[in-house]
Request: fold
Amino acid sequence: MTKAVSQLKHKYDKKIVSILGTDYTVLLRTPKEDPALTNLCGYCSYNSHEIVINCDMYYYKDKKDNWIKNDMKEVLRHEIFHAYFNESGLMQCACQFDGAWPKNEELIDWLALQSPKVFKTFDELELIDREVT
Reply:
């Protein structure tokens, strides 16, 4: 395990986060610990309210700590957006239709990749009240 993975595991593993009033537990696991992670960067379990991030991907071994941190945070943001869509009630309807937009991985990736930039713009314009309800 790299230093970056160790730091992120210490910061996020078993952290509970409220997603629209529902508590989700963030877990950083390896495919050995959670076989569902085989060939996945992460997943969001709507039944157990867990966001599980793969912290032992094969391609991390040759990557620098900064790359690993950025990648794992992006994966975490991606899975958080899945949780928000679920808790919004959007996934229930999406399950009925193949290719429904709430299940669209490109949309979730866009949100996960671009949200830091969007939030930075919001911060610059003082559009975000820190006590969001």
Summary: The longest strand covers residues 22-29. Strands lie at 15-19, 22-29, 42-45, 50-54.
